[in-house]
Design goal:
This protein has about 180 residues and is of the alpha/beta class. The protein contains 5 helices and 9 strands; from the N terminus they run βαββββαββββααα. Helix 1 crosses helix 3. The longest helix has 19 residues. The structure holds zinc ion (2 copies).
Length: about 180
């Protein structure tokens, strides 16, 4: 049984205090070891000047470059606003069946929508995005179960409707992937 270590790494700009609260809940939900690697990197190279947003695919490429020789799966965490060219924004992006993903807190922050800041809610939303993108890394597609963390969400309200966990079906798919004899 191979249980890859999940490595969380900062991609700056990054709001303080976002990574550490992810560690224990991720261990609990996914069951793999979780480590924080503080080296990280600046996402400035991925900034699109006209959009004032960061190209998430370019950041993924940089994660691959930085960690290519390493065992494990790598989740970059940023507070920069991410996009891919065909979409206005993305909450995150992952390599399906790969090793790399990036998530952003930018669109998860209540203050962006003119509401009062809520650190607990921000942290919970980021955790859901982390579990979701890691699910893609581990081969899961989007799920139609309303409360499953693998359900696709395009706005924060949809994130809030999901649980911080995989549904029984997604969980069993994960289990098959990692625990087949
Ligand atoms: Zn997804
Ligand atoms: Zn599901």
């Amino acid at each position: 049984v191979i249980q890859p270590t999940i490595v969380l790494t900062p991609v700056f700009p990054l709001r303080e205090g976002l990574i550490d609260p992810l560690v224990e809940p991720l261990k609990k939900e996914i069951g793999f070891p979780v480590a924080v690697e503080s080296s990280g990197f600046e996402a400035e190279f991925a900034l699109d000047i006209s959009r004032q947003q960061y190209n998430s695919t370019a950041i993924l490429a940089a994660l691959i470059h930085q960690f290519d020789h390493r065992e494990g799966v790598f989740l970059g965490i940023t507070s920069g606003d991410l996009f891919i060219p065909v979409l206005t924004y993305v909450f995150g992006e992952a390599q399906l069946n790969g090793k790399y993903a990036i998530i952003s807190s930018w669109r998860l922050n209540n203050e962006l929508y003119g509401l009062e800041g809520n650190e607990k809610l921000l942290s919970e939303r980021l955790l859901k995005e982390a579990i979701h993108e890691l699910g893609h890394i581990f081969g899961l597609y989007h799920c139609r179960n309303l409360s499953c963390v693998m359900r696709s969400s395009t706005v924060v309200d949809e994130i809030d409707m999901k649980d911080t966990s995989y549904c029984a079906r997604c969980k069993s798919l994960l289990t098959q992937t990692f625990f087949q004899s």
